[in-house]
Amino acid sequence: MAKKKIKVPKVVNGVPQGEVEIEVDDTAGPTWGPNDKHRLLNKPMKRVDGPAKTTGAAIYTQDVRPPGMLQGKFLLSPHAHAKITKLDLEPAQKLSGVKAVVAIVNVGGEVRYEGQPVAAIAAETVEAANDAARAIAVEYEELPHAVTAEDALKPNAPAVAQGRGQGRQQKQGNAEQTQAALASCDAVVEAEYRTPILHHSCLETHSIVADFRGGDEATVYASTQGTFTIPKDAARELGLDQSKVTSVVQHMGGGFGSKFGIGIAGQWACRLAKQLGTPVKMALTRRDEFLAAGNGPGSIQKFKAGANKDGTLVAVHAVQHTMSGIGNSNVAGQPYQYKAQHAYREAAPVNTNEDGSVALRAPGHPQASFAMESLMDELAYKLGLDPVEFRKKNLKDPAWHRQLDAGAKAIGWENRNKTPGGGAGPLKRGMGCGVGAWGGGGNAQCVVDVTVAQDGSVTAAVGSQDLGTGTRTYIRAIVAEELGLEIDDIVEKIGNSKLGNANASGGSTTTASLAPAVKDAAYNARTEMAKRVAPLLGAQPEAVVFDGRKVLGNGKSLDWKQACAALPAGGLSARGQWKPGLSASGVHGASFAEVEVDVETGHVRVTKMCHVQDCGLPLNRKALESQINGGMIQSMGMALYEGRVMDPELGVMLNPGFGDYKLPGCLEIPQLIPIIDDGDERQAVIGMAEGANVPGVGAVANAVYNACGVRVRQLPITPDKILNGLLQLQQQRG
Amino acid sequence: MAADKTIKQSATKSTTSSAWSRRNFLKGVGVAAVASDAVLDRVKHVTAADAPPDANARNQVLAGPIKITLNVNGQERPVTVEPRTTLLSALRDRLEPPVTGPKLVCDAATCGACTVLLDGKPVFGCSVLAIDAVGKKVTTVEGLGTPDHMNPVQAAFCEKDGMMCGFCTSGFVTTISALLQSNPNPTEQQVREACKGNFCRCGTYPHVFEAALSAAKAAK
To answer: Which pLDDT score is estimated for A18?
Structure first.
């Protein structure tokens, strides 16, 4: 068969890392057809797992309790940096109901962040496990730590991450030329933007149940973004063959980039299960989750940038520091989505004694976008230009022009504050905007099996996981549409590593990878079915039509069930794989926000938000709107509320709980306007989830400026920063 | 270490506790909450004895397993708990088979995912002791409807896409079902107020509010 080479995105643990070239069959195959010609797809569809999720019938990893299951628990380090001088597990081991207490870090070993697991426990009850954690006698010799960027960047700072730290600088562009170009600009802005470390805050904490009872097989239930990221590592920890380990992910309570592989929770669930020959559940507590389950990196981004009166962005000089604890994350490069005549960027990580950063929904992009969108706004106001027009001038892709126009119309852009801070009364209203982009392309990893039984029942099976994006629903819809059936006629089987392979859900690549494979399998099932049924109709196979639960041809029709009765006893199976023409890469989005700032209290309320998003062929418009809403809400949370707060002296996190780590809640949600950009006519599936939470952060910050005249350059935008900014403005005016 | 000692005592107690007595139970209540007449009233539901409680038993310490019976979704469910076991943990970790609709998310009354109804009133299951639920009707999301027979709130959540990952959904559905009992015709602001103890990280809020208002309309 002829082959061709194509490029597909490469994603590692949720972080996109460019593209790789692969070889695929060069064959004709299914196509989606025009986006407005679908019967089920591109319409609002009810989530097929809705009834299970709304009635408590959906089983998540934390709900699994095999017979004899023990409760796992970690003892965490209370110090940011310390050496363990004493570790006596015996008092804990002697407790009733405690089955195992194992050291993770031994005497003489070091802990490098508050929350680093020191010991693992398995006990008959949650209460006994908690007692055991308290009974472990451990003593530490505290060592110097750095938990803020300031402390970490001091010349005599303690070495946090040997061999990494300040060494890995990236440089792009020509610094001298960029600096020189600034001299001739009509307006120059120098500014430093900061974002704190963020927390995924998945409602289901990192959880794994290792169901091993001796013998040579195990089932591992995991709250994971990748069914197939589990078996290999679990098998290694359990000492079993990988083929004997099945991972199960029926439903999972949120990942946002933090759940790939078995992680430390899975590692110890497996180790303890192996040691004891009985199932062990390791579910992090909420505090564990904040301290030890990964986070999204913070950033410090310093700019010198210049533009001309005609709106041309001339020069952008950016120095970016990424704060990723003991980890190694990066913030997306500058000038982000904009084109500047001269651009220079240097980037370096700053390591601190904190848990390491991992992917967090659009890794490094909201940070870069907030800074760049704020900078663009500052330049626009300095030049007296409309921020929307200034952006359009420096964005080439017509998608953004279309989306900025649509968003401006939806938010009522012409009603923004004409003078930042202007207007009577203490409540100031303002508007801001921002743009974003994402890859979201597919790659060739999914294997889908569609089977049609003799009684007419249809199953679509693939090991992939549904993070809440609606995977189950579009699997059914694609198959139903292809076979002329309804959604309820199809049963989907997912979330099991014994089913066909699927990629992990990172980089918004799931839908673009899986939907084409489902389409291909359904297309192959239809082709095969047509061959079988054509003789019954006296029609040519290629002339057989599937519609309205009927199979039609040669002026005759058979009910779906009649047609299936002609199949052999084993029914019919068809396999599908990803086909390049069915997915594409590259989505765009534009966000607008309207806020109300109380200049007496500094309180900011977002009153309205709008986000325009393209994604090629929308599969389920209802789920897509939910995703866009979710993106807006998360970007609003980042702008106004969220951030890890550290005590520099003690080296500990001050807000490791939902009481103090503020998330957007029912009372803060503004009017939200999700707009699906149907101007995108690509007949291909593209992932968009990570595109939707990027530009809203800058949009909210810019709206705050437009409302009250205070430019807050350090997130989150809390009332103290507004009040301090207002005071400074007053002092400047004299 | 104090905890160590207490637990050793409890280990001894546990050998006799399978034959749990009313007296031991009262001691358990003593450690769980300062025993009040209200608490003792509840105890009567499980003791069957109608003699006045032993005043000396009130302020003694007991840890370790005790048997109680919880009324969960209309069924009498015997379960062994400790005085410190939360209602949520009793449902999820101790009942056999478990009731897992209510989720453990924060264990600190900050997120609402564990919301259950206690005599029809929404409470955080993580912040009510199992023994304090004795003699009351516990209704979880499973008791409000089943996939084949959803209540109007559950059906509206499906209709309006009021969920994504679904981990907060049980809590929202339960809270809103209780709201519509007390206020069949709420405004969106009243829905928001009723749900302000419930978090969703996926960001389904607008569809949750729509679902609540739509369910109210449908129930008319």
So the answer is: 82
Write the pLDDT tens digit of every residue in A105-114: 999 999 999 9
Asked if A389 and A414 count as a contact pair (C-beta separation under 8 A), the reply is: no
The enclosing H or E element of B11 equals helix B2-17
Instruction: Please list the residues that pair with B144 across neighbouring strands.
Output: none
A528-559 pLDDT, tens per residue? 999 999 999 999 999 999 999 999 999 999 99
Q: Do B100 and A127 touch (CB under 8 A)?
A: no
Please, is B67 exposed, middle or buried when counting C-beta atoms within 10 Å of its C-beta (0-12, 13-18, 19+)?
middle
Q: Which residues contact A535 (CB under 8 A, 6 or more apart)?
A: none
B151: tokens are 């209540």
Query: What is the separation of C-alpha A320 from the centre of its chain, rounded to a whole number of angstroms?
Result: 22
Beta strands in A216-340 (DSSP E): 218-222, 245-248, 280-283, 298-307, 313-323
The Cβ of residue A170 has, within 10 Å, a number of other Cβ atoms equal to 12
**Averaged over A167-187, what is the pLDDT?**
90
For chain B, residues with pLDDT lower than 50 are 1-53, 55
Look at residue A8 in the predicted model and tell me its pLDDT.
79
Tens of pLDDT, residues A272-296? 999 999 999 999 999 999 999 999 9
| pLDDT above 90 as % of chain A | 92
Most B CBs within 10 Å, among A54, A65, A99, A469, to test the B interface:
A54
For residue A483, the surrounding DSSP H or E stretch is: helix A471-483
Select from A83, A133, A60 the least CA-distant residue to A468: A60
CA dist., res. B80 & res. B46, Å (int):
13
Cα distance between the two ends of chain A: 78
**Cβ within 8 Å of B, A 632-671:** 632-634, 657-659, 663-667, 669
pTM of the complete model: 0.92
Q: How far apart are CA A594 and CA B108, in angstroms?
A: 33
Say which residues have a Cβ less than 8 Å from residue A544's Cβ, sequence separation at least 6.
A529, A530, A533, A534, A537, A551, A552, A553
List the end-to-end C-alpha distance of chain B, in Å, as a whole number: 60
With 70 as the cut, is the pLDDT of residue A95 above it? yes
- Does any CB of chain B come closer than 8 Å to the CB of residue A71? yes
Mean pLDDT of chain A: 95
SS3 content of chain A, % helix, strand, coil (to 5): 30, 30, 40
Contacts of residue A5, defined as CB under 8 A and 6 or more positions apart, other chains included, come to: A21, A22, A23, A24
User: Which two three-digit tokens encode residue B212?
Assistant: 């609540």
Q: Where are the beta strands (DSSP E) in A308-353?
A: 313-323, 342-350
Please answer whether residues A660 and A401 qualify as being in contact, where contact means their C-beta atoms are separated by less than 8 angstroms.
Answer: no
ipTM of this complex prediction, to 2 decimal places = 0.96
A641-667: per-residue pLDDT in tens? 999 999 999 999 999 999 999 999 999
In the β-sheet with A447-452, what is the strand arrangement from edge to edge? A490-493, A458-461, A447-452, A572-577
Which residue type sits at A143? L
Q: What is the CA radius of gyration of chain B?
A: 19
SS3 A128: helix
Q: What is the pLDDT of residues A371-390, one digit of tens each?
A: 999 999 999 999 999 999 99
Q: How many CB atoms lie within 10 A of CB A287?
A: 17
SS3 label, residue B190: helix
Q: Alpha carbon A529 to chain centroid distance?
A: 39
A16 touches chain B (CB under 8 A): no
CB contact under 8 A, B100 and A467: no
Cβ A629–B140 below 8 Å, yes or no? no
pLDDT per residue over A207-250, tens digit each? 999 999 999 999 999 999 999 999 999 999 999 999 999 999 99
- Host H or E run for residue B182: helix B169-182
Tokens read off for A438: 């994402």
Minimal CA separation from B158 to chain A, in Å: 5
